[in-house]
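dude i think i finally got it to work??
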Amino acid sequence: MTSAPKPPATPAPHDEAHVPADEDAQLDQAFLALADPVRRRIVARLSRGPATVNELAAPHAITLQAVSKHIRVLEEAGLVTRTRDAQRRPVHLAPEALERLTSWIDRYRLIHEQRFRSLDAVLAEDAQEDPR
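look at this
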């Protein structure tokens, strides 16, 4: 008779206490900004290149003022920047901010992937010991 399989070894979860408070606040602000579908579409559009407020407003059935408010929220979250080009004020995506979000998500994705790999190994070992 074989002993019960050992539970899979899991990496220690990321300790949120070690995330600096300012980084935590930036993440909160960025995720809150991206919670709105209009702002996500603006970010998606800006991923193709800079655009003016008029260009960003075109596909939406909302006022220029509303689009400007959405851009301001994204700007305060550090996700976009504005520059001045003569009379134009193009909006640009801030890729480094998106990279911070991706890194945060990847940290947890990797932990869970490791847990699933460990579980797969235990299940495979159990299946070899007890073929039915």
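Helices lie at 21-34, 37-46, 53-57, 64-76, 95-129.
im so relieved honestly
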